[in-house]
Amino acid sequence: MTAAETETPLSAPLDVGFDYTRSVGPVLGRFVNALRERRVVGVRGDDGRVHVPPVEYDPDTARALTDFTDVGDEGTVVSWSWVAEPLDGQPLQRPFAWALIRLDGADTCLLHAVDAGSPSRISTGMRVKARWADETVGHIRDIVCFVSVDSPPEDPAPAPPPPPVAERAEGEPVSTVITPIHLHYMHSASPEESRYLRGLAEGRLLGQRCPACGKVYVPPRGACPTDGVPTTDEVELPDTGIVTTFCIVNVPFLGQRIKPPYVAAYILLDGADIAFLHLVLGCEASEVRMGMRVRAAWKPREEWSTTLENIAHFEPTGEPDAPYESFAHHL
Amino acid sequence: MGKQLAAVLGTGQTHHRAKRTDVSMPGLLREAVDRAMEDARVDWPDIDAVVVGKAPDMFEGVMMPELFLADALGANGKPLLRVHTAGSVGGSTALVAASLVQAGVHRRVLTVAYEKQSESNAMWALSILPPFQMPVGAGAGGYFAPHVRSYIRRSGAPEHVGAIVAAKDRRNGALNPFAHLRQPDITVESVRASQMLWDPIRYDETCPSSDGACAMVLGDEAAGDAVVGGAAWIHATAMRTEPTTFAGRDQVNPRAGQEAAAALWREAGISDPLSEVDAAEIYVPFSWFEPMWLENLGFMPEGEGWKLTEAGETAIGGRLPVNPSGGVLSSNPIGASGMLRFSEAAKQVMGRAGDYQVDGARTALGHAYGGGSQYFSMWVVGSAKPGS
């Protein structure tokens, strides 16, 4: 067993999220704008069936559908599933049922929440009606949920705040709905990368050499991408090297963590066979050159952790540039 | 056992814009599909299978979009495949569709690729930062700019070559009624005066962010024979892939692209591409990739691609018109951009390219690349049947 195999890989959360904007188009647009008026609109397919929500194209003929028709806001539960522990972002924050509901006048089912209180109070065939939001914005959430027609809950579930609304001119119909999506991952580094990251936390740069081609990879990969064999020979590298090539980033963008302009450069450490991207500071951006000799500028030791960010940037050493021929094969 | 003959029966595309908020995602695809089916003179019962492609799901935040697109694509009850090879996906999607015909499995296949960039932000989606990493990444421009610098250093190309490409492609785009950017008055000087974004890449040397889709109907020999005015016959196809990074990787002239091109010319029976190809639609999202890919594709020797560009030979009327449609620099619905290159090549040899038709085009190249220059897909189409 190598050290890499006995040490626990490092993990950290990775949260990715964005407010996606959905263009609803002429058919779902009709649906959400009707919801804003507390009406439910369906569309008649080529076989005469009424689809709710309306579908843009007939599922059998693929023809664009335009024969809209209003349906009721009451209907029948066709099937259901109990949600004992609601998740963030779900329509209700207390136990509820997801149900397929066939609205009166519709031939297909709408999926929505039923505020039934307990699984004993919902059943297939049960009659339900829409509970409309106090403020409607043109979104499926304009229906807070459905409730039993015969015995609606005595303590209705609190309604969540209305969903975010895309900007539009006063009086204009809804053409875009905002759909926030957030993904929460636990990102794990490989055993080899974890060893490299733990090295960084001690101010060391650890790579691995391929036993077949002899190339030194930093960060180590665990396997050589060219030869496909495990890279088990550890190599400690100095914190000096050269800039192979670079660009100057002048563009601001969402989520950017470094203020532009900055030099994003491929740094080839002395003794390594592959470059990695890092910052070059300590001179004017216009003075950065291909082949320029650089050294790591480490953050204060007390700020170090298991990340390449321990190196704040690279800066010129003042030594003569490496000749182009010495690094041309790294471009 | 050889491949069956296959041909492009018709093509269609959307009007590409920064924001097509007038249509849903399915509606965007249908706009291209309806035009392609009309161009091919086919109806839904004629279509045997559907192959759809798009770039990363993160761009629109829809996982497996092909499932909710099935109705719009008339795919219910038919084989529906989704292809994904990053920015090259429009090209590889067309090649997967072509292979279904070449294999003799289907007579007519509908293929479509798209991106609706306005529903998200590709720059953000390409700059997600996993833990432990240095936050240097800056979207596709930040990724490719250092390699453009390497090309300029390696080839000794003069600085204005990138601007020549940008001005040419945007002026070509002005001839294309579907193009997103239509700039008939752009000049080399105005491009050079535009803001430096990812030095050495300037604002006017970068592709726009577009909503758009492209579709084609491909068919077998009998279907191709029936095309009024002549189909675009598929003479050769090639795809190659390589890792994004490995020690000694040539990032300027990637081996996967070189090998794909060599295989492509061999299959097409082309020994001198520069003389034998009449028009080329090459994936050029940043201007400097025109000279880089001219070399990678074997049109010019290594280090000399820029000379063809600088001499004006890649303009319409030149020795090898490159991107007469305006290319990726004029319209960039990412997932569709590769299929646009493939379909524009087909339109040239079918004589259906309108105001940007290259006179007498009989043989054309469609090309796409994606990821960190790690996916390559390309085809050669001709007005004559292969071997005839």
UniProtKB/TrEMBL annotation, chain A:
Q: Which residues form the ChsH2 rubredoxin-like zinc ribbon domain?
A: 199-230
**Domain ChsH2 C-terminal OB-fold positions:** 70-132, 234-299
Q: Hydrolase: is it a keyword of this entry?
A: no
For this UniProt record, the keywords arranged alphabetically read as follows: DNA-binding
Top-level taxon of origin = Bacteria
Supply one GO molecular-function term: DNA binding
Under what name is this protein listed? DNA-binding protein
Quick check: keyword Acetylation in the entry? no
Looking up Pfam families in the UniProt record yields: OB_ChsH2_C (PF01796), zf-ChsH2 (PF12172)
InterPro entries referenced in this protein's UniProt entry, alphabetically: ChsH2_C (IPR002878), ChsH2_Znr (IPR022002), NA-bd_OB-fold (IPR012340), Thioester_dehydratase-like (IPR052513)
Automatic annotation (TrEMBL), chain B:
Top-rank taxon: Bacteria
**Which PANTHER family did the record assign?**
ACETYL-COA C-ACETYLTRANSFERASE, NON-SPECIFIC LIPID-TRANSFER PROTEIN-LIKE 2
Gene3D superfamilies linked: 3.40.47.10
Q: Which CDD domains match?
A: SCP-x_thiolase
Q: What's the protein name? A: Thiolase domain-containing protein
Which Pfam families does the record cross-reference, listed alphabetically? Thiolase_C_1 (PF22691)
Location of the Thiolase C-terminal domain? 250-375
InterPro entries recorded: Thiolase, Thiolase-like, Thiolase_C_2
